[in-house]
């Protein structure tokens, strides 16, 4: 309890960073510039609003709401630019300066250090928000927003700042150089916004055109974009007869994302990593279960997708069967797509390296005992466990959402998904057995993934066209994601065929890699036995 | 007390440290000698808990580096061979940061900072920025950082590298003072005469193996168990060697590469005087006759081959 208090109150890392951040004239100039831009934009937008003659009260109200929205969008931009930029160099610069060793030779846990770094970055972000308070207050005075709107919007902005800070901190821990850390942090920020912005905009645009007839009811994920915090501040999710404010969901998701990023960074910073890897893997299993359950539940309970399946291949069948089958295909596809983040984790789970410490050396193909310790032998059991947990949670979510059982096509796609990732795990093993360097192997697995998944797409499109509505065989059937290319029922058979092929290839690759590993280990042992000869 | 037990570290096909074992007591200043890449820094980093040993362990006052790393860290002060100083930080702020992470109570921090600054002779620089300090002062600041929590064990990796002779002498005196204060000090260095001056124990490491360990005098004695004299004889050296071998107090005599005759001697001071008198009495023209005492450098060169991992 006391050690936890020390982490969050009076954290030495935060205090030191704070002293440095606010030292000299640089910070005053930056804050001044930020305020000038903010005031200039606010005045410009207000001048545009006020200069319109003969506007009705309703129009004026809408204009003032627009004024508040612009201010909040501007704050969203500030957070998006500052939070990753400020955090991206936090750890990598210390590593380059070699001060990280000094810190970790003291009784400091990775958690203490990383939380300190996050707090110092967040404090700077909050300072930007506080500095903008007079301008947002003006929007309240002018009637564009209420104080409650502003406070929730600020809270949501803080959460977005926390997510982006956590991403940047993880990247900063992985990166070898500050420039790389900055570039990757902004790339991650861009990808994050590319993902959450359309989700949020679909809601706000829908409302703009008269949609959203159920008051402020909206899916919780609309609150995840930093550019629409004011529009989504008052939204809620209906669960039964209860209206749960979406900011609560946003808070939960943000804390979960932040925690998993911190655990990942902690694994990289810890000298032994055992405790941190154990925590990370347990958290990963729990999060996968929760997320799979929620997605399975939400997509099934919405009931909108059943209309999707007029199922041409099954015409003539009873309509209830068509709906169930179609939904199961869609759920199978969704499940496959939802496992996409594994592309980032499989290289870490699968690869081993002879250039590192013993815990990175190959220690078997499948060892249940090693499932949580982060050594290569536990990689496959952990991957299988993750996929198994996800399938079961998804199944439970679907049942909970609509009291429906997932039918055959879902299980075919689940099988295909599992073999797809095991195939990339096997590639990781094979690549590692050819190269000594762990980093090289990981990079190669990632590159091979792109080579097999992303690269064929434009080529096959050129050769065979982009249409996925096909009844005859063609080049698309050779594509690794072929089973997911259409909603036709016969794709489930493809999923099984592809699954079997991928599983067979995986077994062959693992067998080859094991042969090579045995030879390499023998060579390593021979070198190790050479005695030192004193003069 | 520090007990290092069969400490071993492997990286892929390389075994950086091959089962090192030694014990040190309070007040010991241990000079850790070895070529670049011999395994000194790896050993020091394992003891400081920054690297996990592949096998073996070290126990400091009952705290095991593998089982209780946090307890060990509270008792050690680690000074690597680089400064790792923060920019835009004042000297007192730098020390305050480390005092905070070593959990020195806030009320005591000012006094602690003042005392370590005084010990390292940096009081006048308390308000200066660390980047404005000279190299010698930065080195002393690093040492001050190691002392803020009053550690039992100090791990100093190449502390004198890059320092001018005066700064080096000051640092040497400071380390000797720390030894007198009852701390265990482990110093790795390439500058062997310096280590011999203030270390009461030394260890020689090559390719991860500890080739010798013990007091300097003992190691020298192990390498060169008898006294050796070098005599410069102008003429007829071969006959002089025959004459010397015939003496009761002489074990062996050889002509060295430098033209001097090296005599392995087992007698006392009287026998030494008799030996010189015998040489001169037999008509050999002796221009010099002196004891050739081995030092740490000789021991190091004799024990090691220069091979690195």
Concise account of the structure shown:
With 535 residues, chain A is mostly helical. In chain A, 70% of the residues lie in helices and 1% in strands. Chain A has two domains: 271 residues, no CATH class; 242 residues, no CATH class.
User: How many H/I helices of chain B?
Assistant: 11
Mean pLDDT of chain A: 82
Rg of chain A (CA only) = 27 Å
CATH class of the largest domain in chain B: Alpha Beta
Q: What is the straight-line distance between the termini of chain A?
A: 57 Å
Strand order of the largest sheet of chain B: 6-7-8-3-9-10
The arrangement of helices and strands of chain B along the chain is EEEHEEHEHHHEHEHEEHEHEEHEH
- Overall, the morphology of chain B is elongated
What count of structural domains of chain A?
2
Strand order of the largest sheet of chain A: 1-2
Following the backbone from N to C, one meets helices and strands of chain A in this order, namely HHHHHHHHHHHEEHHHHHHHHH
Strand content of chain A: under 5%
Radius of gyration of chain B: 24 Å
Structural class of chain B: alpha/beta
The largest contact between protein chains, plus residue counts on each side, is: A-B, 42 and 48 residues
> How many H/I helical runs of chain A?
20
How many domain regions of chain B? 2
**What do we call the CATH topology of the largest domain in chain B?**
Rossmann fold
Low-confidence stretches of chain B: none
Largest sheet of chain B at a glance? 6 strands, mixed
Identify the CATH architecture of the largest domain in chain B: 3-Layer(aba) Sandwich
Q: What would you note in describing this structure?
A:
The complex is a heterodimer of chains A (535) and B (309). In chain A, 70% of the residues lie in helices and 1% in strands. With 535 residues, chain A is mostly helical. Chain A folds into two domains: 1-271, no CATH class; 273-467 and 474-520, no CATH class. Chain A has a two-stranded antiparallel ribbon. Chain B is 37% helix and 28% strand. Chain B has a six-stranded mixed β-sheet with strand order 6-7-8-3-9-10, sandwiched between helices. In chain B, strands 2-1-4-5 form a four-stranded antiparallel β-sheet, with helices on one face. In chain B, a hairpin with a 2-residue loop joins strand 1 and strand 2 (14-24). The radius of gyration of chain B is 24 Å and the shape is elongated. Chains A and B meet through helix 2, helix 6 and helix 20 of A and strand 2, helix 2 and helix 3 of B.
